[in-house]
Amino acid sequence: MSNTSLLALIRKKIVIDVDSMDPAVAIRHSSQTFTFCDMTSNQAIVFSEASKPDRQAILTSACQGIKGSVLDIGQQVESALVTLTALLAKEVFPHLTGKVHAQTSPKHANNTEATIVEAKAIVNAFEGQGIPRSRVCIKIPATPESLIACQYLEKTGINTLATCLFSLPQAVAASQAGCQYVAPYFNELRVHFEPKVWREYENPAEEHPMSPIISSIVASFKKLGTKTLVMPASIVTSQEAAVLASLSPDHLTLSANVLDQLTIDAEGTALSTLIERNSSYSGTDTSNVGVNSFPDYLKDGGQALREALSADQEASRKLADALGIFSEMEEKTRVLLRQELTK
């Protein structure tokens, strides 16, 4: 990898995470001078890996311990799903300096207790594979009920990340819950499944609808002094990665495709100029932001956040759509596991 690549340039500014459960991706973009911090994942990434022919052994292994048990087939599938996620993460874990992330089921997004139970089960499964809980982070959709679960989990020593996040109120609520990270989506999830939904902007920093939102999250968190880190996700192009780098979040999580784009030296000069050009972009004015600028979004069962989401039709639409897509992907993985368990 050339030292002049855009990836090398961005690494100097921001912590880079790998948005993939394919160890080959982490290996390909690692070097003697660079190792990824975290690995992020979700139901779509799990299905993508589980459906690969060369990952059949992991799928089989995930089912071995539970196959033929006294549990009914539905319970076997759910148990194997958690084990599968842990086994896939275990493959990437040696190539990281930080945490592995796993996402709770979208079917539990509006159920605090079910989210807590599942998060604990995921952590236990990862510990069973030799990954300490200090290096596990549970990705949880940023709904009122689930962020209340995050608040509880953080108090018990389980790291959390608020995902499916499209608004400043969601981000502030996550910081109030004590989440380790927030992962605002730059693009809505559907662009990865229906490319025609994705829109290209000449200057994404000023024109993309999520740029001012992410900028305001970064600025507000600095004003509030929160420990919660900002990790933008759902990035499609190297240009978008460069723009996000200019907004100065704490982390960026990047897919294999974007990482590959960022290593193309020919784009480095033009896109490094883009980073510098947008480095002064401030987005929404946060000069008056203080500790009393926001309501307690988690009070009364998350009522203030519920109201904020209800008033933001676009954020609500994107959140619901993301949960729907993740549900579809999770069900596809269940089908694979059911087939394996009933052989």
TrEMBL record:
GO BP terms in the entry: carbohydrate metabolic process; pentose-phosphate shunt, non-oxidative branch
Pfam families documented for this protein: TAL_FSA (PF00923)
Gene Ontology molecular function, alphabetical: transaldolase activity
Transmembrane segments: none
Classification via InterPro entries: Aldolase_TIM, TAL/FSA
Assigned keywords, A-Z: Schiff base
UniProt-listed SUPFAM superfamilies: Aldolase (SSF51569)
Matching PANTHER family: TRANSALDOLASE (PTHR10683)
This protein's name: Transaldolase
Organism, scientific name: Meripilus lineatus
